[in-house]
Design a protein that fits this description.
Blueprint (H helix, E strand, L loop, with lengths): L1 H19 L8 E11 L2 E15 L5 E12 L10 E5 L8 H6 L4 E3 L13 E3 L9 E5 L8 E2 L16 H18 L7 E6 L1 H16 L6 E5 L4 H4 L4 H5 L2 H10 L5 H4 L3 H21 L6 H15 L3 H6 L6 H7 L7 E2 L7 E2 L13 H20 L25 H11 L4 E7 L7 H11 L9 E6 L9 H18 L9
Parallel strand pairs: 4-7, 4-9, 9-10, 10-13, 13-14
Antiparallel strand pairs: 1-2, 2-3, 3-7, 3-8, 5-6, 11-12
């Protein structure tokens, strides 16, 4: 009898053991849940669809699957007139968790009013979500969140080079968006892209790829703290000088500016720093070693005035002050460093000497609060369960940066589509993709100036993820809401 029981148990256990050895994400699945929230004092009932949708190759075989969450407001009589917004974060290699759980979605993580972690971890209602005016899709590119390259029946994977590059990323994501739009019957809807950080590069490129390869035309593109690698990676006088207004903002926040600036409101002094940057600093750095001593000293004095750094340290850097030095130097005498992505955050290094902080104070803080919240939220609220690890940052490198034409791609998309407008959102204390860099990008997209009335810029008193600050969460969502309402139903035909 004992032998029989053992055999039964052994047989029953085999399938479980076999199953448990395979940790795989389903290729094509969706879980639907129903929810309710309050936005701007109004009860909003909505459906959350979360799951995976394949990426196919040219032969129609699935080569990857992307994890997504799609929020739809209920009781919409005419879904065709309902705006839909496709949301991407950056990295490259970052999941959609950031804007999903802290910005536009119906739930946001529990943090304090300035964005710092609090315990117990978790999430709460977002009373400022844009779900009242638009449906939202949060998309995770390959190797972010639960999105993965698929192993076929022969144990082979698609070459990584298919996915991990500026143009590769744009190509497969545009195809994926076409499929999603068809499956969800949203071709008639006004459509928007929103991208944060590298997501800005991504959606600038997608704007043209969707038009020229998928024949999908957009009403708007929203660039949140966008990364423009035409400036950031290039270096030189322009790239360097554009940092100064950010230095001004950050020094003002930490009360390191001279009284005549410190006693003024931030928005009053930034135009002064911007003007000096464009008209004096760029030409000065461009002269290199052939600048006169007098001009060099005069410029250094003014840079010190606008940055809180000493004239000596500025001259020692030949007027070309790197960001990492600024993060280390500004509060060096206080034994602190400041954050890269949000310079309101403070860190402590092992040594006060050096030219860069030991770690990113702000990013460690964000991972502290976001990671438990998203893992808990997906399982509890969305009822999506898997043993696959949620990649906050996934393995996507080496990343192919060749042929980055995304800035001009956006210009071309706008020229072809008179409906298409662009909103920039930047935090003044963002030291990675600075607000003035974003302004410069906006100026350079259309050098002719013929479309400048279709660009909008909004600045906020916070950092890279400006929505973490409670006051800016309200303001930035309202700016998107206004942008959508003003662009969803154009009063005239799409023509010049």
């Amino acid at each position: 009898m004992k032998s029989f029981v053992f055999k039964v148990l052994f047989v029953l256990t085999i399938p479980f053991l076999l199953f448990s050895q395979n940790r795989e994400i389903p290729i094509d699945t969706v879980i639907i849940t129903n929810h309710s929230t309050t936005i701007k004092g109004q009860t909003i009932n909505y459906i959350a669809e979360t799951g995976t949708q394949p990426v196919w190759n040219e032969d129609g075989k699935p080569i990857a699957t992307l994890f997504y969450t799609y929020y739809k407001r209920k009781s919409i009589k005419n879904r065709s007139s309902r705006p839909i917004i496709f949301s991407f974060n950056g990295g490259p290699g970052s999941g959609s968790v950031w804007m999903h759980m802290a910005y536009t979605g119906p739930r946001i993580l529990k943090i304090d009013n300035e964005g710092y972690p609090v315990q117990p971890y978790g999430f709460k209602n977002n009373p400022y979500s844009i779900l009242d005016v638009a449906d939202i899709v949060f998309i995770n590119p390959v190797n972010t969140a639960y999105s993965r390259i698929i192993i076929d029946k022969n144990g082979k994977k698609e070459d990584r080079k298919t996915f991990f590059g500026i143009n590769e990323d744009i190509t497969y994501l545009s195809e994926w968006l076409n499929t999603f739009t068809s499956r969800k019957k949203r071709w008639e809807s006004p459509k928007y892209l929103i991208g944060e950080s590298y997501g800005g590069t991504r959606v600038m490129g997608l704007s043209l790829a969707l038009q020229n390869k998928q024949w999908m035309y957009l009403n708007g593109v929203i660039l949140v703290s966008p990364a423009d690698y035409k400036v950031i990676r290039v270096g030189g006088p322009v790239s360097s000088a554009l940092n100064l207004p950010y230095y001004t903002a950050t020094a003002w926040f930490h009360k390191k500016l001279p009284k005549e600036l410190q006693n003024e409101d931030l928005t009053k002094i930034l135009p002064l720093s911007e003007d000096f940057t464009i008209n004096k600093l760029i030409p000065a750095i461009a002269k290199g070693g052939f600048i006169t001593s007098k001009e060099k000293n005069d410029v250094a004095k003014k840079m010190s005035f606008f940055s809180g750094l000493s004239e000596k340290s500025i001259i020692q850097n030949n007027l070309d002050v790197p960001n990492n030095f600024f993060w280390k130097e500004l509060l060096r005498n206080e034994g602190k460093n400041i954050g890269r992505l949000d310079s309101r955050y403070l860190g402590i290094d092992k040594k006060e000497v050096g030219i860069r902080p030991d770690y990113s104070a702000e990013l460690t803080s964000w991972l502290h609060s976001f990671t438990p919240a998203i893992n808990h939220y997906i399982r509890k609220e969305l009822n999506f369960k898997t043993d696959i690890k949620y990649n906050m940052f996934g393995p996507v490198h080496p990343w192919n940066n060749d042929n980055d034409n995304t800035r001009d791609n956006l210009r071309q998309a706008m020229a072809q589509n008179p409906y298409l407008k662009v909103l920039f959102q930047s935090g003044y204390y963002d030291g990675a993709t600075t607000y003035f860099n974003a302004k410069y990008t906006m100026w350079q997209i259309d050098p002719s100036g013929k479309m400048k009335d279709r660009f909008y810029f909004k600045g906020y008193r916070s950092g890279h993820m400006m929505y973490l600050r409670a006051e800016d969460l309200i303001k930035s969502n309202e700016d998107i809401r206004e942008f959508i309402l003003n662009t969803s139903y154009p009063e005239k035909s799409a023509k010049y």
